[in-house]
Each structure stands twice: as structure tokens, then as C-alpha cells.
Amino acid sequence: MLGKITGIEDNTVIVKLDIDLDKTQNLIGLLIQMVSKETTIIGEVVDVKDGFAYINLLGEIEEDNFSFGVIRKPSFASKVDFLDNKNVIKIIGIENYKENRHLYIGKSPIYNDIQVGIDINSFFDSHFAIFGSTGSGKSCALARILQNLFSKKEYIPYKSSFFIFDAYGEYHNAFSKLHDEVPQISFKKYTTKLGVNDSELLRIPLWLLGVDDLALLLEVEKHSQLPIIEKALKLVNVFARDEDKVLKIKNDIIARAILDILSSGRPSAQIRDQIISVLSAYKTKDLNLETIIYQPGYSRPLKQCLLIDASGKMRDMELVMNAMEKYLTDDYEMSLPDGTFKYTLKDLQDAFDFALISEGTLKSEKTYDETNILRVRLHTLVNSDDKEYFEYPEYIDKTSYIKELLTTPSGAKAQIINFNINYIDDRLAKIITKIYSKLLFDYAKNMEKRGSLPFHILLEEAHRYVQNDNDRYLLGYNIFERITKEGRKYGILLGLISQRPSELSETALSQCSNFLIFKMLHPSDIDYIKEMVPNLTKENAKRLQILQPGNCIAFGTAFNIPMLVKMELPDPRPSSESVEIEKVWFVKK
Fold first, then answer.
1. E-only strand ranges, 113-209
2. 94-122 confidence digits (pLDDT tens)
3. Is 45:2 a contact under the CB 8 Å cutoff?
4. Bridge-partner residues for 17, per DSSP?
5. How would residue 359 be classed by pLDDT, with cut points 50, 70 and 90?
6. Strands 455-460, 79-82: parallel, antiparallel or unpaired by DSSP?
7. Which of 278-287, 436-445, 523-532 has the lowest mean pLDDT?
8. How far apart are CA 270 and CA 549, in angstroms?
9. How far apart are CA 312 and CA 501, in angstroms?
10. Where does 74-153 have alpha helices with state H?
11. Are 163 and 455 in contact (CB under 8 A)?
């Protein structure tokens, strides 16, 4: 007997100890059973003071099965004792271990000889989060879990698909040798570093992007900017593949823009300058400043018809309007691209330029300025090195592209696909991560057999990407929040790895079902975790600041109770070590 129950306050049982504390092991963290005729209740020692143990209630054992949560409180007559080893294993370990169902993740620091395991389905069929300060062991934990998963002796998770968005290029070292150890398992790597030959350059087929994707790429800030993107895509649908129609459509757009200017009611000098500006930037072989305007008796170039007389009037305005009306046509239909043909950034740039003057934006300086900024951003992209990431060499459809991501050069199935996004700025990294996540979500959602090929998207430094963005306001959704809310039924799951959970989207975090929390130091992060994460007690929250590296508090649907776990170091380790200053600084005299 450990002692006798003397009090029960809320979820805490107070036990007067009948043992000599000087001759027994440390009680903090040990599991205790309180047995009565009605039930066996399990608790954890959270404090010992003045000969009393304070035990938090965790769950009950009924018919040899443990259930988390307590409905009944123990009676004062209950026999209080240490939980026997068999039941400890039942609660924090894995009974009747099966390779295709269970996974060991580490050991219990409290019960040194017991390995902590999880039910694979309960962990990987839900979104999960791994939190911890720098150097606490987050990256090593993820690497160890996946290494354990892929090193099983009898079973191979061949159809698994883990997409890692690697913020620092850390995971190549941890997984590059998996294929040597298990030939059926393959690690595929993409890089954002230009000019590298040992990795495939990350490239996204531009024609697979829709209005929402381009809105992210061009950093749309207002609803009024979305129609110009939609119009540009409709134009590129023609510009990039139907040469016979291109000239007719361009002439129509230019003519309508000039007619809008002529009917704007502005001063003649302003109308003349604006028409010259339009025809200098947008022109075809048929319609430009040198286009001949015919009238009875003689002809002259269009630019001469823009002259203003001494009274400040453009006398040939009606003549110009009549000439422009001849270029108008309704002989074409506009629709969004369906991903069945290839186009380039320059095609899109051309379409965007004409879209800018086709939506009546010239009538309003404010609207023109709001939409022109998107045009400037697209031009900047086209003329930067970042264009390489959107220049796919040949046409490929969406299904084939996803399958290509999952296939190695030798034709084998790739289980881990690593995107090293270390070489691009955070802004572009966030955009690319969102675009890929949406591509994968749409693919999973449209699969004929739902959930037949699960995708796990693992986001290192997730606080950079999964934020409380204004996507919900502009697009009606945030892709990460949508995945966390809807992804489970389609077999697409998120793993959030972060050192700053307080910067994460509250909606996304609230949908996570399993947590591994390593040492946390920042008070706002600890407070945020306590508010947002279920099943985290005050006692466990206090532990977060004093955890040793490699130790975490694990809880969620895959764990019977919140528990302390010591993770084994992965072998090989990810390249996440801090710089060793003494080795860099010092040389012998």
C-alpha cells in the first residue's frame, strides 16, 4: 500500500503516504492505481509535499482495458498502490505488438525499460504537430519516427507518400540512404538551388495554376484585383494556342480601350496623351499609331488624327471612333484554361498586359493603379531568376504531374518527397508550399476511390506558412485550414513542425489530434499551447520549460495518456546541429 486517500479536490486525489520517502524512488510521474470493488482508477503523481502525494486522475481500467478520462472518483476506501508493470505497459507501451499496426517512438524516462509505442492508424490518420524551441529535438524526432516506420523487418509502408517542405535542407542526410537499407523504399529530392546537378530543380507547370494560385503568386490584396487575373487567364487560353484569333482579339481589346478613353469626357489633351500611351504599349501590325485612317478625299496616320486645334479640341475624334469600331468583334468566346495545353510566363505576361486595358480600368485611375501593381509583379517575376520554378520543359497534365512527383527516375514509387526550399525567400517559399498543398488536396479530393493513396504534407518551420492570412477574406478559404478541416476524409494530412506555435493559424492547430511537444521557453508559446491544445494539464505545461533535449510530452488520440517520452536519436541525423563555435574559431599557435 502506498498510502490512504485523505482528500479529493477537483481532479486531484490527496494521499497520506505510508512509505519511507528516503528509501524509495522518486514518485513524481509514476502511475498509481486506486482499486475499489467498483472500479480501478489510474492517476499520476504530480507533487509530493509534507508526507502527502498529490495524484491527478487520468482514467479507468475496466475489464482489463484502459480508458482515458474519469467519470467516477475513487472512494476513500480504495487501495492505493503503484501500478503493476503489466498495466504500465498496457497504458504507455504497446501490448501484442504488430509490425503492420504499431510503431515504437522512444522510451519512458520514468519507466526506463518500457518502450513507448503508438497505433500507426491513430497517429497517421490525423493531423499532428511537433513543437519545440531551437535545439530541443523537433527535426530529430520527425526523422526518427519516419526511420522507424521505414525500417520494419516484415512490413514495408510502400504506398505511403510523405511530402516534406524542408525549410533548411536538413532532411537529405537523414533519408538519403533509406533505399540502400530497404530497396523498396525511395527518397526523392527537389531543390530550389539553381545550377545544382545532384537534385532535381523544383518546377511547377504554370498551366496547372488557377485564379486562386495566381492570386497567391502575385500577392493579391483586394477583391478588385481578382477579375484582372481571371481575364488574363481567359486571354492566355487564346493567346497561347490559337494564332488566327490572337490578332483579332488584341485589335478588339485595343479598340475598346481607345473608345473608352474617347468617351471619358476628359480634356482633349489628356485623351490624346492617354491614347498615345496605350498605342505605344499595346499595338499590333493592324492597329498602332501609324495605322492609316481613311476619309473621303485623303488618308493619314492615326497619330495625326489626334492633333488638337487652337481651341483645344480634337476635331477628328469622331473619325477615330468610327475607325476603332471597325475593329470590334464578338466572334470569340472566353473561357478559363483547363490545363490541357502548355503556356509560359511570357504568354501570361502578354495576356495580362491586354487584360489590364480590357476591363475598363483606364476609366478609373484608382482601379488601374490597383491592378497595374499585379502587372508589375508579374513582369518582375518574368525577369527574375525565380521564373525558373515555373518553366516546366514540356506539357504535362495534373494527374501525370502528381504521379511524376511520386516516381523516381528509375520508375520506382517514392515514399518520401523532399522539397528543399532553403534557397528562396520566405515569401516565395510560402506561396510555393500553398500551391503544392492545393494541387495535392485537389488531386486527393478528386480520386475515384477516396483515401486510396494518402498524402502527408510535413511542414518544417510551419509558422512561416500556416498563418492567419487574409486568404479567407480574398479567396474564401486558406488551403492549410481547409486541409485540416476536410483533409482526413480524402486522405491528405498535415504535420506541423514549429518553434513558434503562437504564430500558427488557430484553425489549423485546433484540428490537430496528436502532439509531441519538446522544450518550450517563450511564455507566449506556452500560454498559447495551453489554450489551444486539448489534454495538456497545468503540470505538463510547467514541464515544458525544463525538458532535456530529445524529451517531449506526447499526447493525443494515438496515446492512452499524456506521457513523457525520450526519443532516440535518428541514424543518420538530419543536418540540424548548431554551429560548433570552438571548432570554427580556434587554431593552435
1. 115-119, 128-131, 162-166, 187-191, 200-201
2. 877 888 899 999 999 988 878 998 999 99
3. no
4. 3
5. low
6. unpaired
7. 523-532
8. 69
9. 65
10. 85-92, 120-124, 138-150
11. yes
